[in-house]
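Posting here for the record, re: zinc ion.
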Amino acid sequence: MEPDGLVPYRPVRGRPRLTYGAWVCDRCGRSTTRTQAHWPEGRICFTCWFTAIHTHGTCPVCGAERLLPGPPLPDGTPVCGPCAGIVDDFRCSRCGEESGHHRGTICARCAVRDDLHEIMGGPPSDPVLVGLVAALCAAKRPESTLIWKRSPKVQELLHGLGTGTIAATHEGLDTRPSRAAEHLRNVMEHHGLLPPRDRWLPRFEQWIDNKLIDLPAEVARPARHFATWHHLRRIRALADAGGDTQPSVRSAKQEITETVKFLSWLWSTYGRTIETCTQRDVDQWIATGPTTRYTIRTFLVICKRDRLNATVQLGHRAPKTSPSLTQEQRIAWIRELLTGESETLPYRVAGVLILLYAQPLKSIVRLQTPSIVDGNPMVITFGKHPVDVPEPFAQLVRDLLSHRTNLRTSGHGNPWLFPGTHAGDHLHPDTIMHRLRLIGMSNLGARNSALDDLVLECPPPIVADALGYSHQVAFHHAERSGETWARYAGRRIR
Ligand SMILES: [Zn+2]
Ligand SMILES: [Zn+2]
Ligand SMILES: [Zn+2]
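Prediction output follows.
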């Protein structure tokens, strides 16, 4: 019998191959270069033989539960060896299982086990590795494991595991990054030999590095201390315990983002670091911006604990009966969205549209490109009436129109202003909400009614003015928008 089941072509002795496909398989009728078995039907090709030695079930002739290598009956059911007149003994001399032979008289599974033990320097004693060997031998097609283990990378890895130079843990596998290591990790996770590796944690670690990369050391150092010694430590413990880390990662990102903003402001405004920060700095920061600034509270607690600064503190924010938003906070958010980073353009545009027009997110995601007419000025139609989009917001929308993302996957015929990742879809409101939360805009949905009033009080052209955009430009639009806004406001008040 052939070693390893799948071997390169070797002509059968005494029957020289004449031309390609010189033989015809007597079972399937296909031309073949190789006869794998001679059974009562005649010559059997490799494909038919391989199928035969992997077919188990109840023989329709004798009723035995066993290997069914025999030719199929007219209805397609295969029969067992004796009933088909096949005299070969398919039993493994070691485990007794009826299947094709490898290396003399043993089955593929037993051959895999021998090989693994040899590569690993003997049968392992670590229960994790005992389990791994069992899992690899139990593969549906042990023949593929025989081929897989021939790779030098795989052998090196298995040898390391077997001899103890590579720990049979997630961390051990991390030291040999390769596809083979990931395959072993999957097998071990699947069989409960290793706890499932958390999907969010490695991405979060990457996110922290990216977040801090370009910051001055005065900002990056304390922010990294906070990220590492508070959040990462906590989330790693959670992941080790098998918990769902996604909600923690989300709120950690928000706290780190707010901390970075605070430290950057402190450094650029007063040239102070967290060590020299005063209570007055903290109070000023909280009093002059959106309520999300309260998120730095955890950072200050950790600074006190770790003696970076034990003098400043921030109480818990008094819970309000109804969510509210001040005009200052609204304008601060709009300013922030206008000056953010380009990779988050769709989310920034969505956020600006919410804050400028108090439109619910679910109608913003349904905006189609024809709803926007880039005239003088640009107008956008949410419902029946077009409303003005003054500069600099018009420019933001224009940027989005020329850089809509996800068009590669969903096609250029996609009409949505916010194309989703699937063909014909728009972005889901939750996706946008989640991203806005990451940049500190939380609870916007609940604030919609509060926003209505703020928009009437200070419509987009006046916001543009408040942000310091050319008074003339805002004034130029005032005449036109007077009417537009009266109509718009009228619709909202009813
Ligand atoms: Zn065949
Ligand atoms: Zn039978
Ligand atoms: Zn066996």
